[in-house]
Amino acid sequence: MLDFITEKISCWEKLQNEKKPIYIYGMGDGAIKIMTVFKKYGIKTKGFFASDDFVRGHSFQGFKVLKLSEVEEMEDDFAVVLAFAAGYEELVNRIKEISRKHTLCVPDVPVIGTGLFTYEYCKEHSEQLEEVYDMLADELSRKTFASIINFKISGDIRYLEDITVSKIDIYRSIIKPNLNEHYVDLGAYNGDTIEELLEITRNRYVRIYGLEPDRKNFRKLSRYIGERENIEIFNSAAWCKDTELPFAAKSGRQSTLAAMSENMIDARSVDSILNGREATLIKMDVEGAEREALWGAGKTISRYSPRLMVALYHRNEDIFELPLLIKKLNQKYKFYVRHQLYIPAWETNLYAVPK
Asked: What structural domains does the chain harbor?
């Protein structure tokens, strides 16, 4: 069982036993989540640092934020814990350079929800993980699935290096957009993923539907859409039914549903929006609401078998729960997993295409 999982010791346990001083690279929400886990495990932090060009003499969590060069002058050697996400090549290369000089750990903390992704967690869900692994359609998917899990346990970025592929390769080899798409974009942001599709199809499509809950993002989306025909956009969250939900607007990609927010927004289901009409391609990147969005598209998925592009990285359980839910909704899919350039394992997505 779980033969594809080779990492048994979590990065948190490794940090417990780390003899070198531990510095956290980065600030903000990610660092606060990591500090919370540090407290639980009794892991001591020596300080915080940022890239030299970002340090302005400020402090964080009671520590003066240092430059990397200052830490390197102070310490003969030290361990680095990354506390932010990197999604472009220059920054990823900077992180890799640090890993060549110092011990680097990139802890996995869920974007949404609680709990830690450890080997013990995998054992608790071994049947689901084994079922997903066995139903993946190609060797790269199985390798990616295994590497992502081993990364999430260990925090070792080497697991990400040889599984990273480009988005255009995914479009060309798996999704294969055509000129007759009925495209549903859940989490349309500012129109960037609609633009990707239109670039590939040379602005040919039948109909496009876009949902974006954040008001500022929606204004950007509206400006991008402009006078294009046969595109409907909704200032709404994707959900399992039509309702209202509390929402925390962050004016970026990470705007999310939040139970404690007093700000209410409209939420729509795909089945309600389409009202029986066809979808050929559905993309879901809805900050942890993918499960509910899939249920809300259940009739469409069952009837039309649209190709699906679904984020797998917001919640710990997404990596097994979402593929199994799609399989439950429709048995006629082949499943692929791909990881695009990102540290930690964000931009790990599931692609489901009809057999």
From this structure: 8-107 (3.40.50.720), 177-311 (3.40.50.150)
Handedness of CA 75, 80, 84, 86 (dihedral sign): positive
Which residues are 309's β-sheet partners?
Answer: 283, 351
Pairing of strands 79-82, 103-105: parallel
Predicted local distance difference test score (pLDDT) of residue 43: 97
Assigned token pair, 184:
């549903």
- Position 249 pLDDT exceeds 80: no
What 3 state SS string does the chain have? CCCCCCCCCCHHHHHHCCCCCEEEECCCHHHHHHHHHHHHHCCCCCEEEECHHHCCCCEECCEEEEEHHHHHHHCCCCEEEECCCECCHHHHHHHHHHHHHCEEECCCCCCCCCCCCCHHHHHHCHHHHHHHHHHECCHHHHHHHHHHHHHHHHCCCHHHHCCECCHHHHHHHHHCCCCCCEEEEECCCCCHHHHHHHHHHCCCCCEEEEECCCHHHHHHHHHHHCCCCCEEEECCEECCCCEEEEEECCCCCCCEECCCCCCEEEEECHHHHHCCCCCCEEEECCCCCHHHHHHHCHHHHHHHCCEEEEECCCCCCHHHHHHHHHHHHCCCEEEEEEECCCECCCCEEEEEEEC
What whole-number distance in Å separates Cα of residue 57 and Cα of residue 350? 42
pLDDT of residue 256: 54
Q: Which of 107, 34, 102 is nearest to 68 (CA)?
A: 102
Task: Name, in order, each residue with C-beta under 8 angstroms of 320's C-beta and a sequence gap of 6 or more.
Answer: 125, 128, 129, 131, 132
Q: What is the mean pLDDT of the chain?
A: 94
The answer, yes or no, to whether residue 157 has pLDDT greater than 90, is: yes
